[in-house]
Request: fold
Amino acid sequence: MVTVTQYSKKDQAFVLPNLIHGREVILPPSQIRWLLQQPDNLLSQHEVNRLIISADTTLLHKNITQEGNVIHRQVIQREMTRGQDSYTNDMIEEIEKALGRNWGYNTQGWQEVKVFDTMIDLISRVVCRVLVGLPLCRDEEYLRSARSFGRNVVLISYFENLLIPLLRPLLMPLAMSYDVFHYRRITKFISPIIKERITAFQKGEVYKKPDKSEPNDYVQWALHYAFANNDHLERTPELIMKRLAALGFAATHSPAVIISNVLFDIMSSPSAKYLQQVIRDEVYEVRSRDPGKEWTKASLNQMTRIDSMIRESLRLNAFSARSISKKVMAPQGIDLPSGAHLPYGVMVGITASGTHYDNSIYPNADTYEPFRFSDSLNIAEADKSYGKIDTVPKKPSPMVSTSDDFLAFSHGSHAW
Reply:
């Protein structure tokens, strides 16, 4: 039995059922600093993330999400994030092709589209263009299996967490059979590439030279990392392929949900036509400053109105209900600031909605106000449409930044 101290009505902790362990303590927003300050050996967010998607089962190899061994994250940060502007033209090309394929080019008539399904298709093509490149990123068989594998990770994890532990060894191999089928179809394409590339790497060389980053895709990055760090396990085709499949899942489904919500929020706004014009005007304005470089990181940072629209949608539709959720890892348990004791294994966290829908933090918190996070000029422009006069100057808040008051991507050292 978990005992939780009651705070004031606005600031109380409470217990919710949790799919994984049957109980979870939800702390008030005022406890966020305490929660983030706890070391991972006492409260682990990584462990919660791993359990929620049943990673040891759904991602096919324990190393993929083992804490301290998430190699693909290091590879992405070193190789892709550093040179992200070099992918701009490739990504734009795939986006244009995917939108034309799914939404068409008819500007006169109406066409019904399934927003989420088309976003999954679009983003999976963009992700594959970056991770595996041409021509594989346009192979329909490969794309179908990559998408199916990612979609089933979520479904299978829900199923496993609903099962009592006694039944999991019996039923999970059956539940995983469809995903394993799609993984094997992925390997049919990727395995020959790895085996061919690996012959170009030799022991003893320094694999931190630019000429070893070509072709510029995940297989090359992973081999580059494995040889540079003399990691024999990470250079095996099996682990590279499984990490690639996991990356495809992680990079596709979250953005598809986010972009779908952004589109719905804009189109359901009373000022939908105005907002669409704002987007066009801002893109044209940035393009005129530096033609040909409008989609670089520097240029995107100048599109503060578009950024604000996305951030406001994330505020209303946080990707996860539990913005911060951690598992008690200390065998002896842990004491809350109130003095209440939580035993080992209990989940403890903070919801995004308690902060994002707080009118003392966000006035008119239930309303989609697309320029809420933009500067005073943009607020003034929005006010003309919404009939408001409040133009208090604000410093633009980048969409990807987190804070105690913005938890769409979690917060702290484990923010994603």
User: Anything to note?
Assistant: The chain is about 50% helix and 5% strand.
